[in-house]
Amino acid sequence: MKKLTGKTAVVTGGGGGIGRAIADAFAAEGCKVALLDHDAALFEQRSASLPPGGGHPYLCDVSDRRQVVRAVDDFAERVGGLDFVVNNAVYFSYSPLAVMTEDVIDRMIDVGLKGTLWTMQAATPHLVARGGGAVVNLSSVAVSFAVRHAAVYSAIKGAIDALTRQQAVELGAQGIRVNALAPGPVSTPGARSVITDEGWEARRSRTPLGRLATAEEVGASAVFLVSEAAASITGVTLKIDAGITVSGP
Ligand SMILES: NC(=O)c1ccc[n+]([C@@H]2O[C@H](COP(=O)([O-])OP(=O)(O)OC[C@H]3O[C@@H](n4cnc5c(N)ncnc54)[C@H](O)[C@@H]3O)[C@@H](O)[C@H]2O)c1
Fold first, then answer.
1. I need a labelling partner for 212 at 20 to 30 A (CA). Which of 62, 65, 140, 200 fits?
2. Closest approach atom of ligand 1 to CA 36
3. Which one-letter DSSP state was computed for residue 51?
4. What was the pLDDT predicted at 47?
């Protein structure tokens, strides 16, 4: 028996990286998935590779509230309601704060933080109408320790953790669970663009397990958090980091 048969989900940034793996994991468990992504090339690839009837790609920039509302409303109407939301889209940039431009900082906040707020606002009425649901926000281990040149990124992820707790309390009475996943370093196009080869090896060697988590493992954890197996779990941030946050110097 598939774990998410008959369920529906919105995954932001579902065209590539971790979002793609989460969307694939949901679809493999029988869930109908809306993939909201702003990358037209990824969008084309995904449209061709999605399982028949399982995936619904939407060309959508999550920093634009109207685009998000349009995509979420359209998907909920097409599939008859909404059960799950995964807030995953990100704009990566690592630099010392002192030299970061206003444009880059604005874009990071617009995609990583405001994109999550817009998606929650768009999705919540549909989850309430369904009588309950589950949300998974993508946090990071960068909340637990300082990552070189990641001041803005870490600040956004700290806000995502706070938002996760707040929404868990605000929406709990309506049967909506809100949790976060905090991956350690995962090899994706976005993370590869900000971490050098030496940086990956340094990170891997710090983990007690001697390996880094994969996007597919994050996908499996997202399936767990939205599934009935996690029915009593809300307001938590679950680390998937091969133990990097508990390893000493
Ligand atoms: N990869 C890691 O090491 C790592 C570690 C911890 C947390 N995370 C978190 O996991 C999530 C996914 O990261 P990733 O590494 O897969 O990133 P990625 O950059 O590889 O993929 C991000 C996806 O989001 C899409 N996207 C970007 N801006 C968008 C926008 N404005 N609207 C819609 N879609 C947009 C991209 O097109 C892409 O498909 C992020 O929230 C990230 O912070 C990643």
1. 62
2. 33
3. P
4. 66
Cα of 142 vs its chain's centroid, Å: 15
User: Is any ligand 1 atom within 6 A of the Cβ of residue 73?
Assistant: no
Question: Whole-angstrom Cα distance, residue 207 to residue 185?
Answer: 10
Give pTM, 2 decimals.
0.97
Ligand 1 atom with the smallest distance to the CA of 160 is 41
Identify the helix (H) or strand (E) that includes residue 176. Answer: strand 176-183
Distance 173 CA to ligand 1 centre (A): 30
233 has pLDDT over 80: yes
What tokens were used for 249? 């110097």
Q: Length of the chain in residues, anyone?
A: 249
Backbone angles phi, psi at 178, to 5 degrees: -130, 115
Is 94 one of the annotated active-site residues of the chain?
A: no
Phi, psi (degrees; rounded to nearest 5) at 2 = -75, 150
What is the mean pLDDT of the segment spanning 120-136?
Answer: 98
Quote the distance between the C-alpha of residue 80 and its chain's center: 23
Distance of CA 121 to the CA centre of its chain: 16
